[in-house]
TrEMBL record:
One of its GO terms (molecular function) is catalytic activity. This is Filamentous hemagglutinin family protein.
């Protein structure tokens, strides 16, 4: 991407090599799901669930960014090599 790559709460998957490339930032992060239940004025319930992201490659996984690379509460998997480079 010319600027940023942002993947929140989803799956990036390749059967072979995968390259994620951004001119600025690569961010792989969870997303938040909120469920609320309002039964009456005295009883309320809510929960928040974090859904993590996954980047999975059948061979090599390469991540290149012009500034920052952030993998937050997410899973990275490659059957061979993982290489990451941020140039700034």
């Amino acid at each position: 991407a010319g600027r940023d790559v942002i993947n929140k709460g989803s799956v990036l998957e390749s059967g072979r090599d995968m390259t994620i490339q951004a001119g600025r930032d690569v961010t792989i992060a969870p997303t938040e799901v909120t469920n609320s239940l309002f039964s009456d004025s005295k009883h309320n319930s809510s929960d928040i669930t974090q859904l993590g992201s996954t980047a999975s490659s059948g061979r090599d996984l390469t991540v290149q960014a012009g500034r920052d690379i952030s993998f937050i509460a997410s899973q990275i998997d490659a059957k061979r090599d993982i290489a990451m480079a941020a140039t700034e």
